[in-house]
TrEMBL record:
Listed name of the protein: VanZ family protein
Key words of the record: Membrane, Transmembrane, Transmembrane helix
Phylogenetic placement of the source organism: Bacteria, Pseudomonadati, Pseudomonadota, Betaproteobacteria, Burkholderiales
Boundaries of every VanZ-like domain copy: 23-137
A Pfam cross-reference name: VanZ
Source organism of the structure: Comamonas serinivorans
Residues spanning the membrane: 12-33, 89-112, 124-144, 164-188, 218-237, 249-274, 286-302, 309-331, 351-369
Length: 378
């Protein structure tokens, strides 16, 4: 029976923790079993990996990713369970559920040729879930959730939950290698290839619309515009839920810094730390300055106008990006993610990079059609 007490915002946060935990668990399943191909049996019990020798080859990346990947799951599960039972039982059950999920997925990985079931991975995943559960318990004891609720009420408009989730996912989506800096949503070319392979040998292949002209690389001016819009998207999305001008300015600076940091991290992971900033070309520099100028000029627009402007800008960016091909060098980079050490995250981050602009469009439509009155920026 519920026993928690505190601000309404805290209860609201805990109320969405359950659905978020289910979504995150689904993402873990996707990332752990991708690409879902080549299932076969090795003639061993599914639990045989628990008795296997300690892995001889591992990297710091593997250790850290397996540990940290389950921390959010343990945290969300604890927040979801805490209103239903005592906090210590919620922590214990969340840790056990995280360990159980990892055990099931490691067992299934033993049937996939591109995956190796590992008792080390299982232990690290279980430890990550336990750490997340303890972090949630400490956050509740210290009142951090109540502080976040008060911060959200001061900085953001009501009904901003969906937009905040999108803003939190934007830097994660940028980790997926992009052919154009900050260019999320370049999906049509790969979707055409996938549909062509799927319908090969069927009469439905003729139904696919064919491009009349070959894809042409972006001109420098077009790339500059894509960079500017790509950086401006999260800023305008933030403006749509923030009425205060000075808070908008702080947010815009933070968004620019986070965007550059995420893109540098993606480049460093792909090519090595020495090449973390090689993606900053002349169009990227000028596009970034254009985004800064537009962000400053739009500080005074009402929230609904900010949402409408972004709704107009996103299709322009998507049209430009999806009418340009990906280079062979970029395709080689993606193959490293698909088959290398990033395979655990490739499927998840790939879908985030593809889907983020389209999810933003849906969220903007919800914002613009909401009946609640919207006050102008102050």
């Amino acid at each position: 029976m519920p026993h928690s007490h505190g601000p309404l915002g805290v209860h609201a946060f805990k109320g969405v923790a359950g659905p978020l935990a289910l979504v995150y668990a689904g993402l873990i399943v996707y990332a752990s079993l991708f690409p879902f191909e080549g299932w076969r049996s090795q003639g061993l019990p599914f639990w045989s990996f628990t008795r296997a020798p300690w892995p001889q080859y591992w990297t710091e990346f593997d250790l850290v990713s397996n540990l940290l990947g389950y921390v959010p799951l343990g945290l969300l599960l604890t927040l979801a369970l805490e209103p239903l039972m005592r906090a210590r039982w919620a922590v214990l059950l969340a840790a056990l559920l995280g360990a159980l999920l990892s055990f099931v997925l490691e067992s299934l990985q033993s049937y996939l040729p591109l995956r190796i079931a590992s008792n080390l991975d299982w232990g690290l995943n279980a430890a990550g879930a336990a750490i997340g559960a303890l972090v949630a318990w400490a956050s509740m004891r210290l009142g951090l959730l109540a502080h976040w609720s008060r911060f959200r009420e001061r900085w953001f408009a009501p009904h901003a939950r969906g937009t905040l989730v999108l803003l939190a996912l934007w830097p994660v989506a940028l980790l997926y290698p992009a052919a154009v800096a900050f260019g999320l949503g370049q999906v049509f070319e790969r979707a055409e290839e996938w549909l062509g392979q799927l319908l090969q040998g069927t009469p439905y292949l003729d139904w696919l619309p064919m491009r009349e002209m070959e894809l042409q690389p972006l001109l420098p001016g077009q790339e500059l515009l894509c960079v500017a819009v790509g950086l401006l998207c999260p800023i305008l999305l933030g403006y749509s839920i923030m009425p205060s001008r000075w808070r908008r300015a702080v947010f815009a600076v933070a968004a620019l810094a986070v965007g550059y940091a995420s893109s540098a991290l993606s480049s460093g992971l792909s090519y090595g730390p020495l090449y973390a900033w090689t993606w900053v070309s002349t169009p990227v520099e000028y596009g970034s300055w254009l985004a800064v100028a537009l962000a400053a000029a739009l500080l005074w627009v009402p929230r609904r106008v900010a949402a409408a402007l972004l709704l107009l800008a996103l299709p322009v960016s998507l049209m430009l990006l999806n009418n340009a091909p990906t280079s062979a060098y970029f395709a080689e980079t993606l193959s490293d993610w698909e088959q290398g050490r990033f395979i655990r995250f490739y499927g998840l981050i790939q879908w985030l990079g593809w889907a983020w602009p389209f999810a933003a469009v849906l969220q903007l439509l919800v914002t613009l059609t909401r009946r609640a009155p919207v006050s102008p920026a102050s």
